[in-house]
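Exercise 3.2. Students should predict the tertiary structure of the chain below and write it as structure tokens, then compare their answer with the key that follows.

Predict this chain's 3D structure.
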Amino acid sequence: MATELNVVEITRKHTYGTWRPQKGWMPMHVTRAEGVHFWDAAGTRYLDMSAQLMCSNLGHQNPAVVDAICKQARELAFVAPGYATTVRAQLAQKLLDVVPKGIDKFFFATSGTEANECAIKMARLVTGKQKIIARYNSYHGSTASSVAATGDYRRWFAEPLDAAVPSVIHAPECNTYRPAVGTTASESAEYFDYILRNEGNVAAIIMEPIVGTNGVLVPPADYLPRVKAIAEKYGVLLIADEVMSGWGRTGAWFAVDHWNVVPDILVTAKGVTSAMAPLGVVGTTRKVADYFEEGWFAHGHTYESHPLTLAPAVAAIDEYKRLDLINGAKRMGEKFGPKLRKLMDSHPSVGDVRGLGLFWCVELVKNRKTKEPFNTFHDKYARKPLLIDQVTGALLKQGVSMMGWMSHLIIAPPLIITEAQLDEAVAALDVALKIADEKVA
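Answer key:
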């Protein structure tokens, strides 16, 4: 049996760590996980305050989802996607109960980036146009069209993209803490009208209704309805990327539900199986679906509608309902938000706290008045040390795992978390933030 030392060494030497230079990578050897915790090989327990990659919404090792995977493996582990299966029909019916009304036909991929690739391709086929409008400070995936639409620094590694991927235009994100120059967060919706007045051949606007990794940016109430109206005005489709913000994360099944907006195409993944199997979902309105009755649906792959990815989604939806986690996330978020905001009273490094449901960001700044962050995309790209890594390291020493990104923390625990466990995380954060406080100008 491999020892803890050689597990890490073999992993480091013979497999790739994503989105990083490989030198110096020493991943933690995780041996098990349950509920809101995971354990390393030394037996140390960690409170998972970012649900890994904001995806283990039901907590780790949910028994009903585990059983569904095992049962499906015994009954029908795989069949080509050209066949109908019971679990495929079951999941379609389950989805109709929870997605925004008007979304009623689905494509099943195996990741969020693959689902976004499909959505973008569908939009281009349906409209006969090519350009995509996305936003800065966004992330849509690592494959060709998805990374072209991405607005953060991860796109830079793939450029130039023009030769392989038709044009993507980036507009400002909607940021209430740092609005785009010369505009309020609400007014930033008007950028789309301006772009569409000056651009032709635009197929779709793609956006995270609530931006995820890049800061949990919750828009004002009028923003998303205005973007949808602008898209309809110009005959452009709206793609909602709910890979991260879906599945109860914000206290609603999907973030668009907060504003009663029905996108033309809904993309989701992560929480659909609580990350216990790799599944991405593309949901479309009947208007989009009708095009493909005669027009070619020119997309697909071997693992589309893979039974072992669909069965856990059926079980997961039942678990979200049984545990009342959508309402639970809303209620818990109403308690958690004030606890996080109270940290601003004693920590001058905390510039902003924002979020919805159990999806929160604590943004760190050198100076509250100027809102200068400790680090930026350019620092990360240049491989400079980030202060946020010191903060997350201090949290880890206290047994709390929390994702840091440039100059903010992403706090998105499993939806089954208790108030006592949230208090434990806030107490650890209260200690770790002293590192940032020492660097405040």
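Discussion points: The mean pLDDT is 96. The chain is about 35% helix and 15% strand.
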